[in-house]
Amino acid sequence: MFTLKRQTPGETAFGIVNGFLMLVICFLTLYPIWYVLVNAFNDGADAMRGGIYWWPRQFSLDSFGAVFRSQGIMTAMGVTVAKTLIGVPVHVLFTAMVAYAVSRRELIGRNIYMIIGTITMFFGGGLIPYYLLIRDLHMLDNFLVYIIPAAFSFFDLIIFLSFFREIPAGLEEAAKMDGANDFTIFFRVVIPVSMPVVVTIALFHGVYQWNDYFTGMIYMNNMDLQPIQTFLYRVVAQSSSNQMLGAMPSGVTQTVTSQSLKLATMVVTTAPIVCVYPFLQKYFVKGFMVGSIKG
Amino acid sequence: MKSDAQVKSPSLRTAADMGRGQKWLRRLYSQRYLQIMALLGVAWMVVFNYIPMYGIIIAFKEYDIIFPMSMAPWVGLDNFKEFLNDDMLLTVIKNTLGISLIKLIIGFPLPIVFALLLNEVRSVLFKKWTQTITYLPHFLSWVILGGILATWLSDVGVINKILLSLNVIDSPITYLAEPKYFWSIIIVSDIWKELGWSAIIYLAAISSVSPELYEAATIDGAGRFQKMRNITLPSIMGTITILFILAVGNVLNSNFDQILVLRNQLNADASTVIDYYVYQTGLIDNRFSYSTAVNLIKSVIALILLVGANFVTKRLNNNSLF
User: Which residues contact B294 (CB under 8 A, 6 or more apart)?
Assistant: First the structure.
């Protein structure tokens, strides 16, 4: 605060304008999301008239009730929850395990393994060869397509690697003296002392699993196995209100429209992410720095 | 573990006359669990990264769904020649480069400016809240943001309501149905989603600048702007350079998630980028070989761009990715 005294009038003015600018940016970022929120909490038929900008005009939870009673939406939600709950531990443990192995300096072939991985960051086969691979692995219309192809990421491996290098060698050696093998050391020693990086990667992969619509759209014809994001993609991008109406549970009041059902589904889908993301902040700056600087 | 190794390897001889190969085998055996861990990862990469790379050979074949890949006849560079004569070639190049270059010119510097300005905010709490709010959209999927945009931009949406009441337009416009608005929608929504997030890395770089530099500058009578220009900006130049190299390497990668959500038949003239064309020819028209060829051209150019940008920045200011 003492620095305030030494500010020139120009600098004080800049501070005020700058603060105001930040407020405007925050408003512009949040308002479109707020708009969807208040409309979703409004009576659907009434919302059709428009003009709901700041607060619901006729507060109603009917659209949300319809979301939770809709068979189609709940099935898709279930797929999303399942792929996130299964995909995250698989991705984290598998990637961390490989990272731990290549973090050990005595590993024979370590440099070759790293080169094999680095190449994959700069070049890939592309959409069709990948699609054909998934087809040949019989993963089309198969829940495993959400899990196995997402089980590993060389980018995440690098983040793990930089963390594992910091683990004091003494910890592992002590475990070795006690007769533990490398698997045991990895699970009992390395993972427990690496919780910050494990949580970071888990949260990021969780967000990926939750938000990904492309996998479900390309590899799934079976509607019962499509995640909620793919379901919403079909509603939003293909403007298919038919799909939304098809998901409408029977016996719903006239006040729920396909638009209000869509907005309520968007809100329900997004709520978990909005609750989780502020807690990521303390983790991701570090991971972000490591990942991008090391390339 | 050790005694185990001795029993299984043929090591009844003494260590002295044991060959180098045997020593190597013993070392390998003692780290067998580690090797299993590493090789499982390599196996995954072989399957999910290298087999698709090998699959690129269908770009030089005429692959049909009926025959297995190995039986498809070779056609040399026919698929590549066909793309050069494709009616869509110019549209695809125009849209891919147009959108990416505008993103590079506007979208790349904005987070830097935002980070510099946010850094000037004195209140720690206000700063933290601004950060938390501005990176929220990064965590929402493009499907959700697309849904929000569609609501705003529809003929009965908020944008039309505002413009009609201000008499800027006479009748409502369906923005997503008109090619001429598509690029603007893409650029603005991309900034909305990524401004705060992209600024994080610059803010982290700024926070690692030694406070002593600022103190010394204050004693020398430097003002706020001088410090920003002469200390903060030069300190994050390395970060800016590396992110710029990556951005140039990404010029051909349109944000496919975003394009796919906002694109439709009506705005196709402005929204068909190379990634979409690969998707359309491949998975909608089932022209597997052709689509793979188009994607290969893209990958090779992208790699050249990345290496080129790296080379240029290395020459200019000694910062580089590799």
Answer: B83, B274, B277, B278, B281
